[in-house]
Design brief:
The complex is a heterodimer of chains A (51) and B (221). Chain A is mostly helical and 51 residues long. Chain A has 2 helices and no strands. Classes of the chains: A mainly alpha (51), B mainly alpha (221). The interface between A and B is large, with 31 and 46 residues.
Chain lengths: 51, 221
């Protein structure tokens, strides 16, 4: 696997909510961001108008 | 009745090509729930364009989480809430719905069209100097099972650190990583949004990761 292919696989894994290498600082940074935006607890989006 | 037309009004024809040509920035979406196969998505889009209500609902159900994550990643929280980002995501979905009858398949993924719109909406929101009032959450009736104050602070610091590092990346690299990771677009889809070949995306994302890694290591040294 080439370095570019490894990076591609890493990004695919992060997009799927996985952190394949917790020692990778770049992966950790992106995982934090993904985890943050997936916080559904504070979601206010709805396609149904509120009443 | 299972189908219905969306009112096209007098708006001009909009195609994913025209959006891509508009030099939009780039953005993302995500994919934690398994995404519909590309060919299925194309079929779904075709039915939705024809006004099939079930297809429209399915298409929105597929795209909305990606748009929400993209808007959240780009706009962040205001007063600890995602209301602004979520409102923009809502606007994107409405804009997609409005443009759907005029959409023409130019052979590019529908996601390119959607994230072109999302890119514009986020840019509008970032330019806007007027921030609407931020609603507060209702007081809970029972115990809050969310993270405690310490965990919340630690998380906040981590997120701000991540945002700061990403902000130091060149715009194109930042957009690319957000589209790939937060929105969950494939290299091919990301390339369509950014006007790059899949091969160029893979090279660029590798460089972006290397740069992010280097910055993170320097900060922690």
């Amino acid at each position: 696997m080439t370095p570019e292919e490894e990076s591609d696989a890493l990004l695919d894994a992060l997009a799927a909510g996985e952190l394949p290498d917790s020692a990778d600082p770049a992966a950790r940074v992106l995982a934090v961001l993904v985890g943050e935006v997936l916080d559904q607890r504070r979601s206010s989006v709805s396609m149904t108008p509120s009443t | 009745m299972t189908t219905g037309r969306i009112n096209a009004g007098i708006m001009p024809i909009v195609s994913e090509g025209s959006v891509a040509d508009a030099k939009i920035g780039v953005r993302l979406a995500s994919r934690l729930p398994a995404r519909t196969d590309d060919s299925d998505l194309r079929e779904l889009t075709s039915l939705a364009v024809q006004g099939d209500r079930t297809a429209i609902e399915s298409l929105l159900g597929e795209l909305r989480p990606m748009v929400v994550r993209y808007c959240r990643a780009r706009l962040g929280r205001v007063s600890g809430q995602y209301h602004i980002a979520d409102d923009v995501a809502q606007e994107v979905c409405i804009a997609v719905l409005s443009a759907l009858p005029r959409y023409r398949d130019m052979g590019r993924p529908f996601a390119s069209f959607v994230f072109g719109i999302a890119s514009h909406k986020v840019a509008d929101a970032l330019r806007s100097s007027v921030r609407s009032a931020v609603p507060t959450q209702d007081l809970p009736d029972g115990p809050d099972d969310g993270p405690g104050p310490e965990e919340t602070v630690v998380r906040y610091i981590e997120v701000e650190h991540a945002r700061r590092l990403l902000a130091r990346l060149p715009r194109n690299q930042r957009e690319l990583l957000l589209l790939r990771v937060v929105s969950g677009l494939s290299a091919e889809e990301t390339g369509n949004v950014l006007g790059m070949s899949p091969g160029a995306v893979r090279v660029a994302q590798h460089r972006a990761l290397a740069r992010l890694r280097q910055m993170a290591e320097l900060e922690s040294a």
